[in-house]
Amino acid sequence: MFQITLHKKNAGSILVAVLQGELDHHEATHVREAIDKELDLMHVPLLLFDLKDLSFMDSSGLGVILGRYKKVQAKRGKMAIANVPPSVSRLFEMSGLHKIMRLYSSQNEALRSMKEVTQ
């Protein structure tokens, strides 16, 4: 079963999207809409994906992440990804996404880096 949890950190300036389960074409639209709704409320969006509990992701999931990256960039924001599981890391490497997005080993490490952007 797939689950997305959204919460804001750093006085609401960073949107954290925690993904659990399998992100595939069945879930992609829901994830895209949920995140976009929150990003639209942010003037300069900072988005952090935490993938620690993501057990599977296909090309639809890559599309969701790349699409949010483009949306955040268009609003002059920043995006980071934390806790990338080995199976998803391999997908990032094959697609080249690891070259354009910051990957962190923990949510705290990513949050620290993103907080520096807001100061």
Describe this structure in words.
With 119 residues, the chain is α/β, with parallel strands linked by helices. The chain has one domain: 2-Layer Sandwich (Transcription Regulator spoIIAA), CATH 3.30.750.24. The protein is 45% helix and 31% strand. It has five helices and five strands; from the N terminus they run E-E-H-E-H-E-H-H-E-H. Strands 1-2-3-4-5 form a five-stranded mixed β-sheet, with helices on both faces. Helix 1 (28-39) links the parallel strand 2 and strand 3 (46-57). Helix 1 (28-39) runs parallel beside helix 2 (59-74). The longest helix is centred in the middle third of the chain and has 16 residues, at 59-74. 30% of the residues are buried. The model has no long low-confidence stretch (mean pLDDT 93).
